[in-house]
Write a structure and sequence with these properties.
The protein has 2 domains: about 1-205, no CATH class; about 225-330, no CATH class. It has 11 helices and 4 strands. It has helices at about 20-40, 90-105, 105-115, 160-170, 190-195, 225-245, 250-255, 265-275, 280-300, 305-310, 315-330, and strands at about 1-5, 50-55, 120, 135-145. Strands 1-2-4-3 form a 4-stranded mixed sheet, with helices on one face. Helix 2 (about 90-105) runs parallel beside helix 4 and helix 8 (about 265-275) packs antiparallel against helix 9 (about 280-300). InterPro entries: Metallo-depent_PP-like. It comes from Candidatus Desulfolinea nitratireducens. This is Calcineurin-like phosphoesterase domain-containing protein.
């Protein structure tokens, strides 16, 4: 049996809440029943399946949505972001710090995946009453991890990154080693062969999104969406809390969910709706709008953004410029 799961976005808690561990408990409870049903074959005879393969198809752990990226300043030797030089030791150290924070924040959920134990009846004559069976058989569970646009870091080659992957492999009890996690099935022939048995080809969908995937650079590289996420979405709640001492705590909690707004270009409108919904005084509304515009201007001045802007071509940077200009002209 093959199960594909994607986009869990388990974070470190600094940019909104992750999915509850209760959801993982429900999944675990239902897995036995799914395995039992899969054991009823096309000929109507019950034959217990021997294996379950669970493919974690990208954006499972989410190192991108973390304010820990923001603890170094631009134009300093320590400056580290997803798009900076990953050959510097500080890059792997930052990824390790965030990864460990994610695993700690989601310890209960991760434990469920690590300890999945599926037991189904050895023999059945009918589907009803299967829980009352006497003879049971265990089904082997294998977890596989492929990367997407929020966890592509786990595909970076190198010893320092092998060590980080080894912690993920151990935490999730993955059926793979600490080599770079694949983005394409072609990157992992063994996994490709296994999915071919199910006549399945799997890949994360970021390759169709130019904002989050740079086709020229390939997946093991940062995209413009990473910059927007870190410098606008992750940073904005911090700046609001820093400059507005009297803002309601629930407003800050709401703003931490900013990274979940889709499409990303609509985040300015979402912030505006939150301001109106919480009935903030005019003074505070203006201060929040000013902060958003300030961060937008700083974002567009970043070298990595300017380098991505292609002359004489309407590209993603131009769309961001338009979106930020619209938010400037739109009252909160």
């Amino acid at each position: 049996m093959l199960i594909i799961i994607s986009d869990l976005h388990l974070g470190d808690g600094t940019c909104g809440k992750s999915i509850s561990s209760d959801a993982f408990n429900v999944f675990e409870e239902r897995l036995d029943k799914m395995a039992m049903r899969a054991s009823w074959r096309e000929d109507g005879v019950y034959r217990p399946i021997e294996q379950i393969h669970i493919l974690l198809l990208g954006d499972i752990l989410d190192p991108l949505h973390s304010t820990l990226w923001l603890d170094t300043e631009v134009d300093t030797p320590e400056y580290t972001r997803p798009w900076t030089d990953r050959n510097k030791p500080a890059y792997a150290e930052k990824l390790k710090e965030i990864t460990r924070a994610i695993l700690k924040e989601n310890a209960k959920s991760v434990k469920v995946l690590r300890q999945l134990d599926v037991i189904i009846p050895q023999a059945l004559q009918r589907q009803r009453g299967w829980e009352e069976s006497i003879d049971w058989v265990s089904v082997d569970v294998h977890l596989h991890y492929m990367i997407g646009n929020h966890d592509w870091y786990y595909g970076i080659p190198g010893t320092a990154f092998d060590e980080i992957r080894a912690e993920v492999v151990d935490a999730l009890s993955l059926s793979q080693n600490s080599s770079p996690f694949p983005f394409r099935l072609e990157d992992d022939p063994d996994l490709a062969e296994k999915l071919a048995e199910y006549k399945v080809y799997a890949r994360h969908g970021d390759c169709y999104d130019s904002f989050n995937y740079d086709a020229e650079e390939g997946r093991i590289n940062s995209a413009l969406g990473d910059v927007f996420t870190v410098e606008m979405l992750n940073r904005f709640p911090l700046e609001v809390e820093k400059h507005l001492d009297d803002i309601p705590p629930e407003m800050i909690e709401n703003l931490r969910e900013l990274s979940r707004v889709r499409p990303a270009l609509a985040t300015g409108l979402w912030v505006s709706s939150q301001v109106r919904h919480n009935h903030l005084p005019d003074r505070m509304q203006k201060a929040i709008k000013d902060l958003w515009e300030q961060l937008g201007d700083e974002f567009l001045r970043l070298k990595v953004v300017r380098d991505a802007d292609r002359k004489f071509k309407f590209d993603t940077v131009d769309k961001l410029q338009i979106a930020l200009q619209i938010s400037k002209r739109t009252p909160f």
